[in-house]
Amino acid sequence: MSRSIEREIQVQASPEVVYEVISSPKHLREWWPEEADLVAEPGATGTVTFRRPEGDKIQPVTVVEADPPRRFAFRWSYTDEPAVEHNSLLVTFDLIPAGGGTLLRFAETGYDVANKPDEMLADHTSGWDYFLPRISPYAAGLAQRP
Length: 146
Prior knowledge:
- This protein has 146 residues and is of the alpha+beta class.
- The protein is built from 4 helices and 7 strands, in the order βααββββββαα.
- The protein has a 7-stranded antiparallel β-sheet with strand order 1-7-6-5-4-3-2.
- A hairpin with a 2-residue loop joins strand 6 and strand 7.
- Helix 1 (15-23) packs across helix 2 (25-31) and helix 1 packs across helix 4.
């Protein structure tokens, strides 16, 4: 059985708005990491930074797909090396127009390929269960702005 995290969220905002929320550093910082430095272009590298009392956790990121407003995917590594298939997890966001808003399909895969422990899967599951629900109200608020 493949180990992965998959979620679906209904967002009351257009796929164009949701795409910006999941791919633009200024919007990413509002619901996920404290800092994000990346460009939404395939092959681009950057970082996401999580502030911790014991010190900042800076994660390398490589953009895999950027197909606005349908799909955004990136790899992120828990090493200081660039995020590539053998050392990273793949995060994908698929955006499907639905009910006047967007059905956001999220997946994080690669725990088996990158040989990541069950503890990391459990940690990421609880992390995504915290962060992903923050997308909907944030995106809906942006969609209501003039």
